[in-house]
Design brief:
InterPro entries: Gfo/Idh/MocA-like_OxRdtase_N, Gfo/Idh/MocA_oxidrdct_glycsds, GFO_IDH_MocA-like_dom, NAD(P)-bd_dom_sf
CATH architecture of the largest domain: 2-Layer Sandwich
Number of helices: 12
GO molecular function, one term: nucleotide binding
Number of strands: 17
Keywords: Oxidoreductase
Protein name: Gfo/Idh/MocA family oxidoreductase
CATH class of the largest domain: Alpha Beta
Distance between the termini: 33 Å
Largest sheet: 9 strands, mixed
Number of domains: 2
Strand order of the largest sheet: 16-15-14-13-7-12-11-8-17
CATH topology of the largest domain: Dihydrodipicolinate Reductase, domain 2
Strand content: 25-35%
Helix content: 25-40%
Order of helices and strands: EHEHEHEHEHEHEHHHHEEEEEEEEEHHE
Radius of gyration: 21 Å
Length: 354
């Protein structure tokens, strides 16, 4: 594609701040427009980044013939309608995680992508960390053999932002299951090679959020009574190839954490590995010796939220596939949706990607 790709950002007040350094660093793209329902925030953002095309109506982004890429950074419930409108208008779309809060909405986004012939990517920034990329390359050599089990968790101790966009179903579609579970689950599935999920047993409850005196440590404020999402979730997932996965996520767990505990173990027939240590473990059965080795990396070349934007622009410019295919995001959301269904029905539920 000739020329510099023009980017319009929708939802400039939150996570978009982490995207802007990536757009600024890209050799293929530049931000020329922004949209937000908060006019004051939008104006401040425009002045900060030197962006003059500002509108509180996202339709102005879709209808702008100069714009090639739309970057969606709104609360979860608004991802699908905005992305579909952008794709229908002939724009490429990068959208914050989760791609959408339900599998059906992601299917609709994939259909819109296919009709438009454009790229659609979920901003799963943990894939773009240096250790994640290095481990992916190492695993693809076959060093683990057949991966038959995985464990992943992302846990916080009173760690979340108690704003309506996170704690109300009408905006978020769920609590930590969708907010941070989407991170560790996407990363785990990607490193496993994205096996097809077939069933999940899960729980998603709020045992702590409504406790008298419950508070959000990041802001120091009480948790408001209108909080209506889960504060923790756990699941056991089965895959078509026989592999299994255990998942745990929480915003409020009584756990010895400073900030956040995000870890993953993969277990294969030839070895195991740990993220984010980058440690690989194997056994020589003839000599009965254990081997542990750790990947040594220099610092990340760029903050992952920024790098994902750089890589998306590069894919659009060069005609490469989406760095995070929507079909893989459908797998993630099918599992997370299965956790909620399993909680409601009190049993294991089947998962369909069709």
């Amino acid at each position: 594609m000739a020329g510099t790709l023009k980017v319009g950002v929708i939802g400039v007040g939150g996570i978009a701040r982490t995207h802007m350094p990536g757009w600024a660093a890209s050799e293929h793209a530049e931000v020329i427009a922004g949209s937000d329902i908060n006019a004051a925030v939008l104006e401040e953002w425009g002045k900060l980044h030197g962006v003059g095309r500002l509108s509180t109506d996202p339709a102005d982004i879709f209808n702008d013939p100069d714009i090639d890429i739309v970057d969606i950074c709104t609360p979860n419930r608004y991802h699908a309608p905005l992305a579909i409108a952008a794709l229908n208008a002939g724009k490429h779309v990068i959208c914050e995680k989760p791609l959408a809060p339900t599998p059906q909405e992601i299917r609709q986004m994939i259909e819109a992508r296919n009709r438009a012939g454009k790229l659609l990517m979920t901003a799963q920034h943990f894939r773009f960390k240096g250790i994640s990329q290095a481990m992916k390359r190492e695993i693809e050599t076959g060093v683990l053999g057949d991966i038959y089990h995985a464990r992943g968790w992302m846990l916080r101790r009173n760690g979340f932002i108690p704003s309506p966009s996170f704690i109300l179903q009408q905006h978020s579609g769920g609590g930590p299951c969708i907010d941070i579970g989407v991170h560790i689950l996407d990363l785990t599935l990607w490193l496993m090679g994205n096996p097809k999920p077939v069933a999940v047993t899960g729980v998603a409850r709020a045992p702590l959020a409504h406790h008298k005196g419950a508070f959000a440590a990041w802001t120091g404020t009480p948790i408001p009574p209108e909080f209506d999402v889960e504060d923790y979730a756990a699941a056991f997932v089965r895959f078509e190839n026989g592999a299994t996965l255990v998942l745990e996520v929480s915003w409020l767990l009584h756990h010895d954490i400073e900030g956040e505990d995000m870890q993953m173990w993969l277990y294969g027939t030839e070895g195991g590995c740990h993220w984010p240590k980058g440690e690989f473990l194997s056994t020589n059965y003839q000599t009965r010796q254990f081997y542990n080795r750790t990947l040594k990396l220099t610092r990340d070349t760029m903050e992952p939220h920024a790098l994902e934007c750089v890589e998306f622009a590069r894919a659009v410019a060069t005609g490469a596939p989406s760095p995070v295919p929507a079909e893989q995001s459908l797998q993630v959301m099918a599992i997370l949706d299965g956790i909620y269904r399993s909680q409601r029905e009190g049993r294991e539920v089947s998962i369909s990607l069709d």
